[in-house]
Amino acid sequence: MSNHTFIEETRRRRTFAIISHPDAGKTTLTEKLLLFSGAIQIAGAVKGRKASRHATSDWMEIEKQRGISVASSVMQMLYRDHVINLLDTPGHKDFSEDTYRVLTAVDSALMVIDAANGVEAQTRRLIEVCRQRDTPIITFVNKMDREVRDPLDILDEVERELGMPCCPITWPVGQGKSFGGIINLRTQTMTVFTPGSDRGPKDFEVVPLAESDRLRQRFGQSFDDALESMELAQGASAAWNHADFLAGKLTPVFFGSGVNNFGVMEVLDAVVDMSPPPGPRVSTLQVNKQPVVKTIQPEDEGFSGVVFKVQANMDANHRDRIAFVRVASGKYTPGMKLKVQRTGKELRPTSVVTFMSQRREAVEEAYAGDIIGFTTHGGVQLGDTITDGANLQFTGLPFFAPELFMTVILKNPLRTKQLQQGLAQLGEEGAIQVFRPDVGGPMLLGAVGQLQFEVVQHRLKAEYDADVRLEGCQYTGARWITADSPADLRAFTDAYPMRLSHDAANALAYLCTSPYDVRLAQERFPKIHFHPLREHA
Ligand code: GDP
Questions:
Q1: Is residue 337 included in any domain, yes or no?
Q2: Could you give the CA distance from residue 177 to residue 232 in angstroms, rounded to a whole number?
Q3: Where does a domain end: 365, 387, 409?
Q4: What is the CATH number of the domain that holds 529?
Q5: Fewest CB within 10 A of the end CB: N or C in the chain?
Q6: Do you know which InterPro entries this protein is assigned to (predicted)?
Q7: Best substitution site from 21, 28, 199, 255 to test ligand 1's pocket, by max atoms within 8 Å of Cβ?
Q8: Cβ(464)–Cβ(472) under 8 Å?
Q9: Residue 334 sits in which domain range?
């Protein structure tokens, strides 16, 4: 246990997510951050983690086959007396919902881009999400040891794509074969590049820029070119402004090469020095159908947290699930009595863990910003608020109306119970959205990305022994339905009995076959609210 006071404990936390397009180098950088913080000893360990997860969890086969990261994970490390919580996000676009939910649990993001490819499609979508929430973003331009694009070009593109000014903190000297290192604009020093993956943070040579003759001799034209482009970049880009960064209005930019451990420490330091500690969260509890809005500060004494991810069947032999909770306030200690707001019931986890890089360990204490995993046999869902007694419901964990639908046909009707259990659990986990048509008939699965169907089909068989066939259907969208008066709702449900369904959280949804369809229904029933997204309530 540490000697920090309660307030210090929350202030020294940094919780961030790494976002990138697949292959930009996210896994590599994650590993190096862990390595440099001392959380792991040997390179290759993060890959090892991936591999061992494949072995224990069958459905991860899909990830292996496709070379994409399906699940997101959590890692905690200590660095410079700070507790850093790093959340990985799935890179594949079909899992953007999962990524969105992870981004609701962090206070900042680290964007990794491939210097040859610039800002790619998948990064763009993630940026949108960060921008909506004004999440501060640190940019890392990776793979400078390759033949890549002009750094000025990249800066320009990042500015355009992010819609916010860049502020370079380091600047590359050369690239590819001529990559000489990075200039740190603040310390006015050059850190010399040496290839290899076994260097520690202090193993790189640092030369003051004042010794420019020496640097020029060593790096020739690349050095002069770098100084010139650096000057241009500084002229064209924003000066460092911490408040703007915190408001999501400016991004600091770093250059380096993750695979060579190079430029990584600068990023780790930036997470500590620039990124914000945990911030306040808003609770909107419905009391007598009126929202009661309350802002919860990380330093508030009562424990509270929100479930932003649920992973079922981590251990195939036990029907258990881990609810990943982002602590919003207070302090968690083992044995604490916890309540799930939605049900009012006590949460009795079989274990409570923290995620120390590779290992899961029993939690001794956790503060705002930390991610803790509650292992339970049910009773928790995505979006649930958990407290030590207070009545709170955090908002901001949305479900998007699916755009792809399939009906589920069970091959062996004797497995109906298993199918229902599987769908209920996968629905609660957010792996897929499950709609039960009010008129009966096969269940409908709704997804944002096609790959979600494949994962669910695979998992139903592997984890629930329910072999299913998925068939296309006429639906192309859904809207969650609410009305101000029961009579209005009744009139609507009487008019569209064939189109109504209930989802995993038992919320009423209208299934539509085209965008016009919604418009027509809306025109016919102006008093009905059609919601394209549902926030947990
Ligand atoms: P992810 O899909 O974003 O997690 O990317 P990975 O970390 O798995 O990296 C994708 C590929 O790029 C791997 O083959 C890495 O070895 C390689 N890579 C990562 N960083 C660098 C770098 O700085 N330079 C070079 N040349 N290759 C890199």
A1: yes
A2: 23
A3: 387
A4: 3.30.70.3280
A5: N
A6: EF-G-like_DII, EFG_III/V, G_TR_CS, P-loop_NTPase, PrfC, RF3_C, RF3_dom_3_sf, RF3_GTP-bd
A7: 28
A8: no
A9: 281-387
Q: Read off the DSSP letter of residue 402.
A: P
Examine the domain organization and report whether 323 and 345 are in the same domain. yes
Do residue 158 and residue 199 come from a single domain?
A: yes
Tell me the best of 33, 87, 259 to mutate to test the pocket of ligand 1, counting ligand atoms within 8 Å of each CB and taking the most.
Answer: 259
Report which protein residue has its CA nearest ligand 1's atom 15: 25
pLDDT of residue 54: 35
User: For the chain, which residues score pLDDT lower than 70?
Assistant: 1-2, 40-72, 91-92, 313-318, 356-360, 536-537
Q: What is the CATH number of the domain that holds 325?
A: 3.40.50.300
Domain membership flag for residue 148: yes
User: Based on the domain organization, do 175 and 237 belong to the same domain?
Assistant: yes
| pTM higher than 0.95 | no
The per-residue pLDDT for 69 is 42
Q: Cα–Cα–Cα angle for 243, 112, 373, nearest 5°?
A: 85
Atom of ligand 1 nearest to the CA of 30: 7
Q: Whose CA is nearest to atom 16 of ligand 1?
A: 259
Which atom of ligand 1 has the smallest separation from the CA of 258? 23
Q: Is residue 365 part of a domain?
A: yes
Going by the DSSP 8-state scheme, the letter that residue 84 receives in this structure is E
pLDDT digits (tens, 9 = 90+) for 391-404: 999 987 778 889 89
Ligand 1 centroid to Cα of residue 49, in Å, is: 16
> Tell me, what's the pLDDT at 398?
76
Atom of ligand 1 nearest to the CA of 146: 26
* pLDDT the model gives residue 53: 38
Q: Are residues 358 and 420 in the same domain?
A: no
Q: CA nearest 346: which of 387, 302, 377? A: 387
pLDDT at 43: 53
**Of all atoms in ligand 1, which is nearest to the CA of residue 29?**
7
Is-contact 39 104, C-beta < 8 A? no
pLDDT at 169: 97
Q: How crowded is residue 317: how many other Cβ atoms within 10 Å of its Cβ?
A: 6
Q: Both tokens of residue 349?
A: 């986890």
Q: Has residue 425 been placed in a domain?
A: yes
Same domain for 116 and 169: yes
Comparing C-alpha atoms, which of 153, 155, 148, 156 is closest to residue 169?
Answer: 155
Cα-to-centroid distance, 47 and ligand 1 (Å): 12
**How does pLDDT run across 358-383, given as a tens digit for each residue?**
566 778 899 999 999 998 888 888 88
How many distinct structural domains can be found in the chain? 3
Whether residues 311 and 175 share a domain: the answer is: no
The H-or-E segment that residue 45 falls in is helix 45-56
Nearest to 269 by CA among 155, 170, 384: 170
